[in-house]
Write a structure and sequence with these properties.
Number of strands: 8
Structural class: alpha/beta
CATH architecture: 3-Layer(aba) Sandwich
Largest sheet: 8 strands, mixed
Number of domains: 1
Strand order of the largest sheet: 2-1-3-4-6-5-7-8
């Protein structure tokens, strides 16, 4: 395990050109920029249709300096498998293959290919940047959209179903590495990528990505919103290394403090949750408290 990265020892080299087509205040732009610093220059990217294809720009212009293959929604992990095989035949196994897909292309459309690659143990890193909806096409609900959130196709009562726990699904594949991260804590993401580079098989990252237009908040508050999700215990930062789970970063510190920010503050900061009633918020708060009581007991 390496020492913690800070802003002073973060690599200076950039793999994303200044200026992208991302929305103002986009959390993905932060996570992607720092994530590529951790991956390094010997990396090939695979990206399906998503906010990231918009961020990178239209041919012949690209904001990403690394080699990138754009593929169909359902084939991200399958394409990664093919690239791995090609590199192996060329004796270039030092090159990292990294897939970056949104929650729609991961939890919904791309889950079958991802599960297959994980079961086979294909050696690549898969990043799901989760802005909790199909934001590139107008903020429709995905299976990772939280219960109660308003989207373009849940306009009256909000989403009625619970958010799909994709990291838990991937952990059930017995992967060498699974991590939950947030764009609001980019150095935590950087360190986790570095931690997993030497590990075999498929490595899975789930990154919580605040989205100003989709979530309904002023773009300048993106980091604040992302941190509220963590500080309230609503979204946890953790890693699972060879089956061993432990909280990381700000979430680990919350266990020491044993004091969570009321989840109401997170919900009321976003217009997508404006129809949540006090009773619904209280029920969600109860679920969070019960989850964290379990975390507290683990360290007693």
């Amino acid at each position: 395990m390496q020492s913690k990265t800070n802003i002073l020892n973060l690599p200076v080299e950039e793999f994303v050109h200044p200026g992208t087509r991302a929305c103002s205040g986009c959390g993905l732009a932060i996570a992607y920029r720092v994530g590529l610093k951790a991956l390094g220059k010997d990396t090939i990217l695979i990206v399906p249709p998503s906010c990231l294809t918009v961020l990178q720009g239209l041919f012949p212009v690209a904001s990403t300096k690394l080699s990138c293959l754009n593929v169909t929604f359902a084939s991200t992990a399958a394409a990664a498998t093919g690239i791995i095989a090609s590199l192996k035949t060329q004796g270039k196994e030092h090159i990292t293959v990294a897939a970056w897909a949104g929650d729609g292309g991961t939890a919904d459309i791309g889950l079958q290919a991802l599960s297959g690659a994980a079961e086979r143990g294909d050696n690549f890193i898969y990043f799901c940047y989760d802005n909790e909806g199909y934001m590139n096409t107008g903020a429709q609900r995905s299976s990772t959209t939280p219960i109660g959130a308003l989207t373009a196709n849940t306009p009256f009562k909000g989403k009625l179903q619970q958010k799909k726990d994709v990291p838990a699904i991937m952990a059930a594949h017995n992967l060498s590495y699974v991590a939950a991260c947030s764009a609001a804590y980019p150095l935590d993401l950087y360190d986790k990528i570095k931690n997993c580079l030497h590990l075999p098989g498929t490595k899975y990252f789930h990154i919580h990505i605040p989205c100003p237009p989709g979530w309904g908040y002023d773009p300048r508050y993106g980091i604040k919103i992302g941190r509220l999700a963590v500080e309230s215990g609503y979204y946890d930062l953790y890693e699972i290394i060879n089956g061993e789970f432990h909280l990381t970063g700000a979430s680990e510190k919350l266990v020491e403090k044993r004091k969570l920010v009321p989840v109401r503050e997170y919900f009321r900061a976003q217009s997508r949750f404006r129809i949540l009633s006090d009773e619904q918020i209280a029920d969600i708060q109860k679920q969070i408290d019960e989850k964290w009581e379990g975390y507290y007991k683990q360290v007693e």
